[in-house]
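Students often ask why inverse folding is considered easier than folding. One informal answer: many sequences map to the same fold, so there is more than one right answer. In these notes we will look at a single instance of the problem. The structure comes first.
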């Protein structure tokens, strides 16, 4: 009996598993997308309940043998609908809710929809998806470009991802001839497929803010308690607003964006006079420039009352990713009052055609540190002005430079201030040309070093090329000379000081008519570098070093040990190679130092000694 009982129990277990599998398969089929829709026997579409609409009598959709088995479509059966001249432009057919196509959600895996059509006229074909309550994605229309032959049309629904009407879709509608007709047109369609596509909408939520709520005045964010906003789209706006969720997070979507006004008027005016930054997150696949304007209505709290203040800033977003913008309130220079903020206006370029997703709109007073931007200025050079030819430095009077970014450059130039110091910022750097031509050519024939400071968060290689245009002063005149040096592995996120002997530019045999300087970065096209203190100099003499210690170096040339003596305590010894890179440093704090140079490659080096009186640089030959 025990054996029989065990066997019976085993049979029941198997039966339960079978029933569970059948139930799960049924549940999956009830909530799965049925595709492709090919109207073939045993496939999807042929046995579905298709209902025609807005077609003057609504003759039913017919599933027929393919009358034109040619070109890209040789399948056996196709769908046929004849939109009538007396029908509406949007005459079409739709499946039955809750059946037929199943239930699915638009994602990056199925957002590209394709359909084959055979038509005798050129006109729009429309497709839209509907959810159980009747809400829809709205139709996307694509016109056929061929007549009397099969053509496949592509519909990109990626911009609908994340919208409420793109979740739990259970119906499809097709408009084969979306136009005002002058005749009844027979239309055939077939092979509706779904595939993955390039994302034109975010699939992840904007980063969740972590600043303390006591430091924030929030207009729109799930992370904070928001102030009351009159409207997120004023009546005078030129944009479409959709409230949706991205990965469960409330988000504003502005499509067909030219400009949109957001208002907080009357009792909802914002006093942001104690705030340091305006923050928002933005995602776009097609907008190249975003402008943000803030408007203060003044003490009278009325638009146009005579005391309004406003200012607009321009931002460049990175496409297909979330951009977190923290704009210093000080950048809104025309916004001299900030305690009656009533309007936020967002513009998009190109106007009227772009889409942007917006989240986490708030003001805050937390100092921001950008890891991709230096927080301190480059070291101020102390070389004697009489010994320097400066192209760019706040420490000197600069020579005239034609341009810091030639038209043939592949980089973006921004003139910025770092801790109050003028700095050149090159982003998306492949190469950039700097020119001093004609009357502005540089005569560096009496100079010994090329000097500059560079700060980068991501460049692994930085190259510098100098070009001399020769006596005729013209590029390509036959007497040009040039040389490029590679400065390997700059220290990331720190200021690098390069003192490069001009003798290292071995191909630059003439230096009296320097017309070009070219910076090249790796990785190509993605790096950023900040440049300052670009100059030529005669020697290492600085203001402090006029009274510097007397230094002796022997033997010179050397191959093993080098002795350095001074009448002052030597605090720092730096050995530089011929492209200005430090290869050896010591902190002796003695008047005599012995250096081991036996492991250095043969060549020319420079020994820089630093004492409390200043610096002295001496040439060393290692043989």
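Output (designed amino acids):
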């Amino acid at each position: 009996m025990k054996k029989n009982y065990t066997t019976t129990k085993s049979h029941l277990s198997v039966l339960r598993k079978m029933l569970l599998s059948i139930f799960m398969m049924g549940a999956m089929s009830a909530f799965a997308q049925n595709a492709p829709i090919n109207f073939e026997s045993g496939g999807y579409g042929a046995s579905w309940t298709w209902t025609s609409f807005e077609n003057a009598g609504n003759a039913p959709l017919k599933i027929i043998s393919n009358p034109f088995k040619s070109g890209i479509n040789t399948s056996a059966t196709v769908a046929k609908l004849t939109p009538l001249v007396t029908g509406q432009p949007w005459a079409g057919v739709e499946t039955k809710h809750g059946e037929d196509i199943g239930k699915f959600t638009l994602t990056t895996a199925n957002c590209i929809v394709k359909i084959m059509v055979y038509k005798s006229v050129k006109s729009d074909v429309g497709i839209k998806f509907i959810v159980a309550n009747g809400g829809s994605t709205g139709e996307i229309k694509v016109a056929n470009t061929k007549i009397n032959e099969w053509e496949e049309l592509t519909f990109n629904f990626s911009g609908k991802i994340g919208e409420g009407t793109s979740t739990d879709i259970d119906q499809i509608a097709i408009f084969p001839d979306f136009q005002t007709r002058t005749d009844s047109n027979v239309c055939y369609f077939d092979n509706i497929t779904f595939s993955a596509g390039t994302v034109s909408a975010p699939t992840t939520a904007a980063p969740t803010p972590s600043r303390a709520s006591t430091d924030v005045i929030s207009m729109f964010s799930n992370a904070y308690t928001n102030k009351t906003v009159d409207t997120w789209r004023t009546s005078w706006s030129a944009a479409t607003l959709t409230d949706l969720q991205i990965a469960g997070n409330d988000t504003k979507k502005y499509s067909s964006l030219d400009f949109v006004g957001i208002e907080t008027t009357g009792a909802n005016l914002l006093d942001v006079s104690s705030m340091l930054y305006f923050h928002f997150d933005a995602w776009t696949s097609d907008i190249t420039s975003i402008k943000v304007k803030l408007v203060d209505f003044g003490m009278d709290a009325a638009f146009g009352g005579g005391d309004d203040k406003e200012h607009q800033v321009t931002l460049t977003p990175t496409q297909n990713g979330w951009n977190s913008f923290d704009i210093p309130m000080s950048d809104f220079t025309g916004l001299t009052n900030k305690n009656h903020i009533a309007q936020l206006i967002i513009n998009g370029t190109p106007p009227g055609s772009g889409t942007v997703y917006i989240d986490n709109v708030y003001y805050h007073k937390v100092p921001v540190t950008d890891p991709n931007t230096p927080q301190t200025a480059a070291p101020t050079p102390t070389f004697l002005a009489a010994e320097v030819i400066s192209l760019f430095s706040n420490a000197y009077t600069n020579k005239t430079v034609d341009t810091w970014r030639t038209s043939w450059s592949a980089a973006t130039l921004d003139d910025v201030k770092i801790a109050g110091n003028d700095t050149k910022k090159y982003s998306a750097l492949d190469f950039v040309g700097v020119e001093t031509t004609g009357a502005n050519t540089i005569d560096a024939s009496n100079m010994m070093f090329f000097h500059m400071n560079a700060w980068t968060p991501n460049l692994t290689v930085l190259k510098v090329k100098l070009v001399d245009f020769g006596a005729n002063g013209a590029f390509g005149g036959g007497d040009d000379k040039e040389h490029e040096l590679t400065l390997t592995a700059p220290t990331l996120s720190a200021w690098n000081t390069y003192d490069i002997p001009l003798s290292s530019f071995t191909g630059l045999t003439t230096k009296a008519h320097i017309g070009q300087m070219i910076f090249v970065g790796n990785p190509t096209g993605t790096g950023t570098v900040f440049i300052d203190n670009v100059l030529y100099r005669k020697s290492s003499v600085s203001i402090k070093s006029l009274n510097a210690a007397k230094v002796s170096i022997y033997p010179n040339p050397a191959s093993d040990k080098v002795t350095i003596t001074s009448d002052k305590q030597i605090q720092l010894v730096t050995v530089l190679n011929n492209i200005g890179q430090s290869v050896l440093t010591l902190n002796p704090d003695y008047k005599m130092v012995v250096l081991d140079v036996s492991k250095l490659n043969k060549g020319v080096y420079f020994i820089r000694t630093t004492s409390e009186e200043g610096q002295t640089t001496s040439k060393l030959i290692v043989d």
